[in-house]
Amino acid sequence: MSNPAPSVRKIIHVDMDAFFASVEQRDNPDLRGLPVAVGGAKARGVVAAASYEARRFGVKSAMPSVTAIRRCPDLIFVPPRFEVYRAVSGQIREIFADYTDLIEPLSLDEAYLDVTEDRHGLGSASAIAEAIRARIREQTGLTASAGVSYNKFIAKLASDQNKPDGICVIPPARGAAFVATLPIRRFHGVGPVTAAKMERLGIHTGADLATKSLDFLTAHFRSSAEYLYGAARGEDHRPVRPDRPRKSVGAERTFGEDLRDRDSLLAALARVADAAWERVERSSARGRTVTLKVRFADFTTRTRAISFPHDVAGRDAFLATGETLLDQFLPTALGIRLLGLTLSGIDHSDAEAQAAQPSLPL
């Protein structure tokens, strides 16, 4: 007697469309159809989010405001209202919870859902995704895109295929072929530095990556090798984790003027440490690594980190470590425009493996 086929997970990745900017356009009808950026319009400002009208001009998140205005002179800046975004995110999370308890938020505007168990008997994962998108539109006035597939890696890729306000379904039989066509820079977990290295090695697409052996990938990408090897073949066995632990907790601040002298920088760092440690305490996190982020006036960004054999004892030790790291950059001829301080190496117990669920069509 043959063994039954293993259960296939049904994963949805829901991604809100230009979330912050869309909320602003929803709440202010005068902004609809216009290029909008959430963030600061001042010379030292940064774009936090851009509407699709602004994106057509090449405006994108994390871009300096001066660059965004150069690309789109008619760009309209609005200040961020994070309390509103959090409230809307909570509404969306409540919709998710009506369909599954297995929700892994990635940010305020995106999450993975495991809908292998068909709670409402809708018949397929794609039907569940459409129901969720319809309820988001009805209850919030916003649109969401969704990727539906058999693992997290492909579901996330798929959610970006038909944006905005679209859905893409990739069943197991199409997974490897779908991945093969994609540029390597679209792979989740492949940042600009890794992508550039891959391209130097002749890896430009998923198909190129699939030709490389595990030994080759290990030699060049070390701990990421197994993930990349599987991803190129449409494989990803990570479960949706409702209790997904935070890997780091921290804060950063951009200054109104470039800072150069040590006293001013130490005072600024103390304020950053206060904000970061408040978040550490609120999340009950414990960690062993302190990382300092420094962005200079020319936008060059550098980091330094120190790891300890024990948890960082408290705010004073956290700040003292940051000061030690900062001294590695001083004195500096370039002014410093941003400082960030982060606690990582956070200890979390492994979540239990999820039990197999009855299979549901995509």
TrEMBL record:
<comment type="similarity">
    <text>Belongs to the DNA polymerase type-Y family.</text>
</comment>
<keyword id="KW-0515">Mutator protein</keyword>
<keyword id="KW-0227">DNA damage</keyword>
<dbReference type="InterPro" id="IPR050116">
    <property type="entry name" value="DNA_polymerase-Y"/>
</dbReference>
<feature type="binding site">
    <location>
        <position position="109"/>
    </location>
    <ligand>
        <name>Mg(2+)</name>
    </ligand>
</feature>
<dbReference type="GO" id="GO:0009432">
    <property type="term" value="P:SOS response"/>
</dbReference>
<dbReference type="InterPro" id="IPR036775">
    <property type="entry name" value="DNA_pol_Y-fam_lit_finger_sf"/>
</dbReference>
<dbReference type="GO" id="GO:0003887">
    <property type="term" value="F:DNA-directed DNA polymerase activity"/>
</dbReference>
<keyword id="KW-0548">Nucleotidyltransferase</keyword>
<dbReference type="InterPro" id="IPR043502">
    <property type="entry name" value="DNA/RNA_pol_sf"/>
</dbReference>
<keyword id="KW-0238">DNA-binding</keyword>
<feature type="active site">
    <location>
        <position position="110"/>
    </location>
</feature>
<dbReference type="GO" id="GO:0000287">
    <property type="term" value="F:magnesium ion binding"/>
</dbReference>
<dbReference type="Pfam" id="PF11798">
    <property type="entry name" value="IMS_HHH"/>
</dbReference>
<keyword id="KW-0479">Metal-binding</keyword>
<dbReference type="Pfam" id="PF11799">
    <property type="entry name" value="IMS_C"/>
</dbReference>
<dbReference type="GO" id="GO:0005829">
    <property type="term" value="C:cytosol"/>
</dbReference>
<protein>
    <recommendedName>
        <fullName>DNA polymerase IV</fullName>
        <ecNumber>2.7.7.7</ecNumber>
    </recommendedName>
</protein>
<comment type="function">
    <text>Poorly processive, error-prone DNA polymerase involved in untargeted mutagenesis. Copies undamaged DNA at stalled replication forks, which arise in vivo from mismatched or misaligned primer ends. These misaligned primers can be extended by PolIV. Exhibits no 3'-5' exonuclease (proofreading) activity. May be involved in translesional synthesis, in conjunction with the beta clamp from PolIII.</text>
</comment>
<keyword id="KW-0808">Transferase</keyword>
<dbReference type="InterPro" id="IPR043128">
    <property type="entry name" value="Rev_trsase/Diguanyl_cyclase"/>
</dbReference>
<dbReference type="GO" id="GO:0003684">
    <property type="term" value="F:damaged DNA binding"/>
</dbReference>
<dbReference type="Pfam" id="PF00817">
    <property type="entry name" value="IMS"/>
</dbReference>
<keyword id="KW-0963">Cytoplasm</keyword>
<feature type="domain" description="UmuC">
    <location>
        <begin position="11"/>
        <end position="191"/>
    </location>
</feature>
<feature type="site" description="Substrate discrimination">
    <location>
        <position position="20"/>
    </location>
</feature>
<keyword id="KW-0460">Magnesium</keyword>
<keyword id="KW-0234">DNA repair</keyword>
<comment type="subunit">
    <text>Monomer.</text>
</comment>
<dbReference type="GO" id="GO:0006281">
    <property type="term" value="P:DNA repair"/>
</dbReference>
<keyword id="KW-0235">DNA replication</keyword>
<keyword id="KW-0239">DNA-directed DNA polymerase</keyword>
<dbReference type="GO" id="GO:0006261">
    <property type="term" value="P:DNA-templated DNA replication"/>
</dbReference>
<dbReference type="InterPro" id="IPR001126">
    <property type="entry name" value="UmuC"/>
</dbReference>
<dbReference type="InterPro" id="IPR024728">
    <property type="entry name" value="PolY_HhH_motif"/>
</dbReference>
<dbReference type="InterPro" id="IPR022880">
    <property type="entry name" value="DNApol_IV"/>
</dbReference>
<dbReference type="InterPro" id="IPR017961">
    <property type="entry name" value="DNA_pol_Y-fam_little_finger"/>
</dbReference>
<dbReference type="GO" id="GO:0042276">
    <property type="term" value="P:error-prone translesion synthesis"/>
</dbReference>
<feature type="binding site">
    <location>
        <position position="15"/>
    </location>
    <ligand>
        <name>Mg(2+)</name>
    </ligand>
</feature>
